[in-house]
């Protein structure tokens, strides 16, 4: 374990405006979807309190919190448009402050990103009537009355944050209204709010002047500023610096929160703003470093900074003053406490899967995050420790073993394969998903730390389990590939064959996906990169139907770039030999028409069938006197989070 040092830059204090922060690690604003009708109720408060308890310096609430009634995307935002929110904020700030952390909020107007068909059904407003692809709304151009109203709404929202006991506010540029005014891609006005960069900055400057007048000099005020849109015709890096210097000259701000890119579509958002598994760690840090050289106000940045080593580099080298580790805190809200305790190696790693943006705010491998009222982050010891046997070393089995050991039980894991990790180890063989192995590696490390006995190459039957004299048995034997009852399916391979390397790709490969998950497109990329001609047929309308949008759009982009032919809405009927080749016959889901494809090789993905015979045999055995639980894919084919959550919750009571 890494011992804490007094000179760790991450643990040095900092003052932001008049707000004293105990270290340099913050969680930036994001839409957690934990609100109660726009109010930060008990669930929302518990989520942020847990991070404060875990030791961070500041948590920022209210991702895209609405300042006006016409700034709603249809639910899931905090509503700062009325005084109704103030008592909720007072309760939240009290809880966070009691744990020694500061709390700020983001306040914003969505502009053209809002939903015109929700709430009061008010028209969407924007600097110019230019539609955003992602929100799909057609905005009307704001007149001066709209501008003055929204500026006043920003000031009122900031005052409510102050009355609620918060330590500060930040506004949001990006694809939101202030940023829409700034960007030449969204602002084509010819009046005093359009044209030159100075004119396009005017609305944002007026907003912050009104905010400062409303809250006074001692309340922290910042802006989450786009430092470079990274798109031809958009804001350049020089524009970002010039905008920052305009705000600095006005003396209205206490900090910048630097972001990169645009949000206009799922692809742009995932490739150039919120990095997922297809992007490297901290991809925008070099741009932030250049911005840092030209500004003087304190600087925050959060953009794919997933690990403490990268965060430490950003602080030590003076790139930022405060480092946002937002998704890392979804994974481990006690991250800072580990640094303080000298247990940095035990931090649960963020693997960049973007599951938290798919099932907000849910971490792919932390069952408690966002569910603090129902699921505790801390495991309590069992009153009477016993003997626990876990059959299966996939992700559900590893989680059950970890929790059982934390409860004080003597635990043994029996795994049939030569390595732990199950399907997740197989999934991580795809280069695009290599970081997923962190979910496995962390649990293996934890089992070693907790003294769990692990036996690999051990295909356990009932007698093997009984020989351990267990009080509790977790059967996490997973599943086997489900190829269904399709005629001629024996001519096909499964995605496991491809990902494991057991079967090399042929010259021409047809991949059929019946799940909308990652294995099939992972195989398509693998085959295409090896030189195969690839056709990808899916039962869904698009590739990646069940993935986070970052992952789905990432796969779609790369399949298109590599020239993979995509066929949608096709269900596989039969496979037959056609000379030296294979012929697949599909039926179109909507038309009912048949479609055939001839190829050299067919790979099929249809999920798994539960492998649970051992569980039923154990339950039927008169010799077994303990309690048995069935977990993970041994119950049904599910995703990683569902399996981990199942194992965690069940093991908490064992």
How does this structure look, described?
- With 654 residues, this protein is α/β, with parallel strands linked by helices.
- The chain is built from 20 helices and 27 strands.
- Strands 3-4-5-8-9-10-11-12 form an 8-stranded parallel barrel, surrounded by 6 helices. Strands 15-14-13-16-27 form a 5-stranded parallel beta sheet, with helices on both faces.
- β13 (387-391), α12 and β14 form a beta-alpha-beta unit.
- The mean pLDDT is 95.
The overall average pLDDT, rounded, is: 95
Distance between the termini: 29 Å
Q: Proportion of β residues?
A: 15-25%
Q: What is the helix content?
A: 25-40%
Question: Segments where pLDDT lies below 50 for 5+ residues?
Answer: none
Lateral strand order in the biggest sheet:
3-4-5-8-9-10-11-12
**Strands, count:** 27
Number of helices: 20
Gyration radius (Cα, Å) is 27 Å
For the sheet with most strands, the description reads:
8 strands, parallel, barrel
- Overall, the morphology is globular
- Derived from helix and strand composition plus strand pairing, the structural class reads alpha/beta
Summarize the structure.
32% of the residues lie in helices and 19% in strands.
Topology of helices and strands:
Elements (H helix, E strand, L loop, with lengths): L13 E3 L2 E3 L3 E3 L14 H12 L4 E9 L19 H13 L3 E7 L16 E2 L13 E2 L2 H20 L4 E5 L4 H6 L14 H19 L4 E7 L10 H14 L4 E5 L6 H7 L12 H8 L6 E3 L6 H9 L5 E3 L1 H6 L3 H7 L45 E5 L3 H12 L3 E5 L7 H6 L9 H14 L2 E3 L6 H5 L5 E4 L3 E3 L11 E2 H6 L7 E6 L5 H11 L3 E6 L10 H13 L3 E3 L2 E9 L2 E8 L5 E6 L1 E5 L2 E3 L2 H8 L6 E4 L9 H13 L2
Parallel strand pairs: 3-4, 3-12, 4-5, 5-8, 6-7, 8-9, 9-10, 10-11, 11-12, 13-14, 13-16, 14-15, 16-27, 18-25, 19-20, 19-25, 20-21
Antiparallel strand pairs: 1-2, 17-26, 22-23, 23-24
């Amino acid at each position: 374990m890494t011992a804490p040092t007094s000179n760790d830059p991450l643990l040095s204090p900092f003052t932001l405006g008049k707000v004293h922060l105990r270290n340099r690690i913050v969680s930036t604003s994001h839409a957690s979807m934990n609100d109660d009708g726009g109010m930060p109720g008990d669930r929302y408060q518990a989520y942020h309190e847990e991070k404060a308890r875990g030791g961070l310096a500041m948590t920022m609430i209210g991702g895209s919190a609405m300042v006006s009634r016409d700034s709603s995307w249809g639910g899931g935002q905090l509503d700062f448009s009325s005084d109704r929110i103030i008592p909720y904020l007072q309760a939240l700030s009290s809880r966070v402050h009691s744990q020694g952390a500061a709390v700020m909020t983001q306040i914003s107007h969505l502009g053209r990103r809002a939903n015109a068909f929700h709430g009061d059904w008010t028209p969407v407003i924007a600097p110019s009537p230019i539609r955003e692809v992602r929100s799909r709304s057609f905005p009307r151009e704001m007149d001066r009355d709209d501008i003055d109203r929204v500026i006043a709404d920003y000031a009122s929202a900031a005052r409510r944050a102050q009355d609620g006991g918060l330590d500060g506010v930040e506004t949001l540029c990006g694809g939101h209204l202030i940023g829409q005014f700034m960007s030449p891609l969204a602002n084509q006005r010819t009046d005093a709010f359009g044209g030159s960069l100075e004119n396009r900055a005017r609305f944002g400057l007026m907003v912050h002047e009104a905010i400062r007048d409303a809250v006074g000099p001692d309340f922290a005020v910042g802006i989450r500023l786009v430092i470079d849109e990274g798109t031809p015709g958009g804001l350049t890096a020089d524009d970002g610096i010039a905008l920052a210097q305009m705000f600095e000259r006005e003396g209205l701000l206490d900090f910048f929160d630097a972001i990169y890119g645009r949000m206009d579509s799922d692809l742009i958002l995932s490739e150039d703003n919120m990095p997922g598994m297809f992007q490297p760690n901290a991809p925008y840090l070099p741009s932030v470093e250049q911005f840092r050289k030209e500004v003087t106000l304190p600087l925050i940045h959060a953009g794919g900074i997933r690990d403490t080593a990268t965060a430490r580099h950003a602080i030590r080298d003076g790139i930022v003053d405060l480092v946002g580790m937002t998704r890392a805190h979804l994974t481990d809200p006690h991250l800072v406490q580990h640094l303080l305790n000298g247990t940095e190696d035990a931090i649960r790693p963020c693997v960049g899967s973007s599951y938290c943006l798919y099932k907000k705010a849910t971490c792919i491998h932390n069952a408690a995050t966002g569910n603090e009222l129902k699921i505790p982050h801390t495991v309590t010891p069992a009153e009477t420790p016993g003997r626990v046997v876990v059959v299966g070393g996939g992700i559900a089995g590893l989680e059950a073993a970890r929790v059982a050991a934390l409860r004080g039980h003597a635990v043994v894991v029996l795994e049939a394969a030569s390595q732990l990790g199950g399907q997740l180890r197989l999934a991580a063989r795809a280069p695009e998903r290599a970081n997923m192995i962190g979910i496995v590696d962390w649990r293996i490390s934890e089992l070693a730390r907790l003294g769990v006995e692990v036996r690999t190459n051990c295909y356990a039957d009932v007698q093997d389990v009984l020989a351990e004299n267990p009080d509790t048995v977790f059967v996490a034997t997973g599943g086997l590939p489900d190829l269904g009852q399709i005629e001629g399916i024996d001519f096909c391979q499964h995605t496991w064959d491809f990902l494991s390397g057991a079967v090399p790709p042929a010259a021409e490969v047809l991949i059929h996906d019946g799940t909308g998950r990652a294995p099939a497109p992972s195989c398509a990329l693998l085959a295409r990169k090896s030189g195969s001609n690839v056709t990808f047929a899916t039962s869904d309308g698009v590739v990646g139907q069940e993935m986070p949008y970052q992952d789905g759009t990432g796969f779609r982009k790369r399949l298109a770039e590599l020239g993979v032919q995509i066929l949608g809405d096709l269900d596989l009927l039969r496979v037959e030999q056609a000379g030296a080749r294979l012929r697949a016959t599909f039926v179109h889901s909507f038309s009912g028409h048949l479609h055939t494809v001839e190829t050299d090789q067919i790979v099929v993905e249809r999920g798994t069938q539960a492998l649970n015979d051992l569980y039923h045999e154990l339950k039927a055995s008169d010799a077994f006197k303990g309690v048995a639980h069935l977990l993970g894919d041994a119950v049904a084919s599910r995703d990683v989070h569902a399996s981990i959550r199942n194992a965690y919750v069940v093991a908490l009571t064992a």
